[in-house]
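Consider the tokenized backbone below.
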């Protein structure tokens, strides 16, 4: 059984996903005034299918979450971050070495200058 730990309480975005930004080597999930920048290769589970960043259908599956609120944010030994959306959809920041692309896994900029930077390793 995986050890599920809850990240800091302010890491769960308060607003629904409002935009997805694909930048050259990372992506951002924007929740109105809060922003999650993901530097590891990400995964999204949409309609029971898990897609990895760079694979066919990943972008469409991720963009389809726009307008959805995060129901729960947590992590475990396999994932640096798991965001659960309605209808069983989930967004993952994997921790395994094959998904790592730098020293940071992700950065979450919340409200009131709240900032979380999750390191790899």
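A designed sequence for it:
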């Amino acid at each position: 059984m995986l050890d599920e730990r809850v990240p800091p309480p302010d890491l769960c975005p308060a607003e629904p996903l409002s935009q997805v930004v694909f930048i050259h080597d990372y992506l951002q999930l924007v929740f109105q005034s809060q922003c999650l920048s993901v530097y590891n290769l990400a995964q999204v589970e949409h309609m029971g299918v898990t897609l990895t960043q760079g694979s066919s259908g990943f972008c469409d599956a991720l963009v389809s979450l726009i307008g959805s609120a995060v129901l729960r944010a947590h992590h475990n030994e396999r994932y640096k971050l798991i965001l659960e959306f309605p209808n069983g959809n989930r967004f993952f920041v994997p921790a395994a070495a094959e998904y790592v692309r730098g020293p940071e896994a992700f950065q979450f900029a919340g409200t009131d200058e709240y900032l979380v930077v999750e390191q790899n390793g």
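The beta strands are 19-23, 26-31, 34-38, 43-46, 49-52, 72-74, 79-84, 90-94, 104-109, 115-119.
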